[in-house]
Amino acid sequence: MALFWKAAAAVLLAVILGLTVGRQEKDIALMLTLAVCCMICFIAVFYLEPVLDLLWEWVELGGLDDEILRSLLKAVGIALVAQTAGQICSDAGNASMARTMQMLGSAAILYLCVPLFQAFMNFIREILGQL
């Protein structure tokens, strides 16, 4: 948890620096924001590794198809990237770009889920066929 507290301190420091520098140099403040966001993403991945290991263990125990978990993890990744990119666009003063990025993320997740929806429909057809 020490890494979390260090990251939180870095974020607060970056916000203070961004507010101070941002008055004169908006480009530098934006680059600082991007750098800190990248750092936080790497730390989040570090914290999520044990969770991913547990999920893969559950998939093996349950005898589930690996593609289901892969698709779900991709969807979560797309959502996080779209949300982060949208927030950065908002901070840069481009709210319309932020909303468009979030819409693109939603569309990409739906596209990614099409095979899952098809598998679910096939499962329902099998069940109904057995009745």
What does this structure look like?
With 131 residues, the chain is mainly alpha-helical. The protein is built from 4 helices and no strands. The protein is elongated. The N and C termini lie far apart (53 Å). The model has no long low-confidence stretch (mean pLDDT 87).
**Roughly how much helix do the residues carry, as a percent range?**
over 70%
**Assembly annotation:** single chain
Outline, from the CA principal axes? elongated
Q: Please mark out the parts with pLDDT under 50 across 5 or more consecutive residues, or reply none.
A: none
The helix tally amounts to: 4
Average pLDDT level: 87
Beta-strand fraction estimate:
under 5%
Largest sheet: none
Q: What count of structural domains?
A: 2
* Rg over CA atoms: 20 Å
How many strands appear in the DSSP assignment? 0
**End-to-end Cα distance:** 53 Å
Tell me the series of helices and strands, N- to C-terminal.
HHHH
Which class of secondary structure composition applies to the elements?
A: mainly alpha
List the main descriptive attributes of the protein structure presented here.
single chain; 131 residues; mainly alpha; 4 helices; elongated
Short description:
With 131 residues, the chain is mainly alpha-helical. It is built from four helices and no strands.
